[in-house]
Amino acid sequence: MPGELRFFAKGGMTAARPDVDLLQELKTFQPHVVVVVLGGNDICTSSSPADIVSSLLRLQTQLHEAGTTHVHFCNICERGYFPKDRAMTKKCFNAQRNKINDCLNKNASVIELKKIRFPADYHTDMVHMNEVGNNKLFRHIRGFLFGL
């Protein structure tokens, strides 16, 4: 199946405040399929999983209205460092991410990232994936989209 693959990203972006220029660039490209990789930037000690899911579903609606046929979300993986919220603990982060992932599973198309392991597949910053983790991420996406 011929096609074109493009990567659109903005470090630190949240679902509640998507980068306007990035969204415009994405809408201009008019993709048939969009995969949203969630990193957990929205999660903090005062965040509401329901509000985060609402923001993600709003983003999905915006993409559908712009002509995207399929929108898929990768579930939020573990994290070990929370630079934007020093009061955040791993336990609190995981509780919120699990609620978000469960709700997304019920309301959207979700790519499960079951083979990504924390901390083995992460950089020393404990936030971003290392080369092995990124390879696993792309294999999950490819397998989901193409049934591999």
Features:
single chain
Helix and strand content put the structural class at: mainly alpha
H/E element sequence: HEHEHEH
Shape: globular
- List low-confidence stretches: none
Protein name: SGNH hydrolase-type esterase domain-containing protein
Organism: Dreissena polymorpha (Zebra mussel)
InterPro entries: SGNH_hydro, SGNH_hydro_sf
Domain SGNH hydrolase-type esterase: 8-133
Structure description:
This protein has 148 residues and is mainly α. The chain is 41% helix and 9% strand. It has 4 helices and 3 strands; from the N terminus they run αβαβαβα. α3 links the parallel β2 and β3. It is globular and about 40 Å long. It starts with 19 loop residues before the first helix and ends with a helix. It comes from Dreissena polymorpha. InterPro entries: SGNH_hydro (IPR013830), SGNH_hydro_sf (IPR036514). This is SGNH hydrolase-type esterase domain-containing protein.
Overview in brief:
The protein is 41% helix and 9% strand. The protein is mostly helical. InterPro entries: SGNH_hydro (IPR013830), SGNH_hydro_sf (IPR036514).
Write the layout of secondary structure elements.
Blueprint: H1 20-29, E1 33-37, H2 49-65, E2 70-74, H3 90-107, E3 109-111, H4 131-146
